[in-house]
Amino acid sequence: MKAIQLTGIGQPLQLRELPVPQPGPDDVLIKIKAAGICRSDAHYRAGTPAIASLPVTLGHEMAGLAEKTGRNVKHIVPGDRVCVHYLATCGSCHFCAIGREQFCATGQMMGKHRDGGYAEWALVPARSVFVLPDEIPFEAAAIMMCSSATSLHALNKARLQPGESVAIFGFGGLGFSALQLAQARGAGDVYAVEVNPAKLKAAADFGAIPIDARQGDPVRQIQQMTHGRGADVALEFTGVPETMDAAVRCLAIFGRAALVGLTSKSFEVAPYQNVINKEAEVIGVSDHLASELPLLLELAREGKLRFPAQAIRTIPLEAAAINETLDALERGVGQIRTVIQM
């Protein structure tokens, strides 16, 4: 089968021919129909964080058709439309038992620790496979398995309540989903902070109040629009220290800042002014939970989470096209999301 693999840190991905994997008793072999290209994949290619074992097929956002199932698999049958929770976990440790499987001691990230979806087929543990409703296209489902699911987890961690205001920092795939999911939960005003004009327009088209960070301090802009109150919830998706700082500074009294964006850099917090004096909270968000996916799929099935054509660019399973997309992600340009279509 064709697979696009990372063979060296900092090097372009390469097309390789690999044997089609065969499922064990608890596995599902999936014929990939769509694989999302995530900013994390650009980080992996650059070696941040480092991947211990190469080569590896990138791609942790997957949707397709169940091709073969292991003898112990009961909830999936060949021919099912499926999507994939991107963590392969043991299912029995303390964290798996309490439904916090992202901290499984032996857990593996698909497309990082084991081969993922930039290929014609992918082998996935059955516990990570969910039936995909007919109403949801494969391309949308692939994206949902990372950016949408993580956005939902961030809103859950931030305990968003109906009527509360939300500030979204970074309107890529995560922000695009977070806006719609916040609206589905009855949020009040939602502010989208961006520097990309096309993304600012997309945010406005979907009902957000655009905040152009090129026009000055976004915190000041949010405070002006909220008459000095600030935002009840801030979601930081860029991993840039300056925007992490802004997400904390923009909070209202009792506000919660959920930090999602990946970075190896730090930022300073003025503890009294921005946290203690407001009883504000700074919350870390790591991945998402398998238990959150049924609700996410239902919201998409009901049309409350949408991915119109202008929000998704599709490319073929070709190394050049994928590398070009990863280059654009590193530069911070391009469509809201790009999906490999097969």
Secondary-structure element pattern, one letter each: EEEHEEEEHEEEHEHEHEHEHEHEHEHE
How many strands? 18
Strand content: 25-35%
The rough form would be described as globular
* Secondary structure: helix percent: 25-40%
Mean pLDDT over the residues: 94
Topology:
Blueprint: E1 2-6, E2 14-17, E3 27-37, H1 39-46, E4 56-57, E5 61-69, E6 81-84, E7 87-88, H2 94-97, E8 108-109, E9 121-125, E10 129-131, H3 138-158, E11 166-169, H4 173-184, E12 190-194, H5 197-205, E13 209-212, H6 218-225, E14 231-236, H7 241-249, E15 251-259, H8 271-275, E16 281-284, H9 293-301, E17 312-315, H10 319-331, E18 337-341
Parallel strand pairs: 11-12, 11-14, 12-13, 14-15, 15-16, 17-18
Antiparallel strand pairs: 1-2, 1-4, 3-5, 3-9, 3-18, 5-6, 6-10, 7-8
Keywords:
7-stranded mixed sheet, 342 residues, alpha/beta, globular
Describe, in plain words, how this protein is organized in 3D.
- It is a single chain.
- By secondary structure, this protein is α/β, with parallel strands linked by helices.
- The chain has 10 helices and 18 strands.
- It has helices at 39-46, 94-97, 138-158, 173-184, 197-205, 218-225, 241-249, 271-275, 293-301, 319-331, and strands spanning 2-6, 14-17, 27-37, 56-57, 61-69, 81-84, 87-88, 108-109, 121-125, 129-131, 166-169, 190-194, 209-212, 231-236, 251-259, 281-284, 312-315, 337-341.
- The strands form 4 sheets. Strands 3, 5, 6, 9, 10, 17 and 18 form a 7-stranded mixed beta sheet that branches. Strands 13-12-11-14-15-16 form a 6-stranded parallel beta sheet, with helices on both faces. Strands 2-1-4 form a 3-stranded antiparallel beta sheet, with no helix packed on it.
- β12, α5 and β13 form a beta-alpha-beta unit.
- α1 packs across α10 and α3 packs across α4.
- The longest helix is centred in the middle third of the chain and has 21 residues, at 138-158.
- It is globular and about 60 Å long.
- The two termini are 13 Å apart.
- The mean pLDDT is 94.
